[in-house]
Amino acid sequence: MSNLNRFLGGSPGSVLVKLIFLSLLVGAFLAFLGITPLGLIEGLFNWIASVLDLSFETGQEVGLWILYGAIIVVPLWLISRLFGSRR
User: Fold this and answer.
1) What does the pLDDT read at residue 46?
2) Tally of helices (H runs) and strands (E runs) in the chain
């Protein structure tokens, strides 16, 4: 089996036919639901923007939690490393 066939998962012709058939099925399904490619892209960008808005607020809060915990954890870890048993 050639490298191209191995990469594609079969002969180029058969892979092309499969991709065309699957594209037809998915396109018909999306048309039935009234979903357009531009609508999908806009929805994706809106979703990413809303996730990022939430992520920045949540990330700031989680960052504070990490700092609060580090005030206790890091000195205890350092003391345990300095005075711990040596093998």
Assistant:
1) 93
2) 3, 0
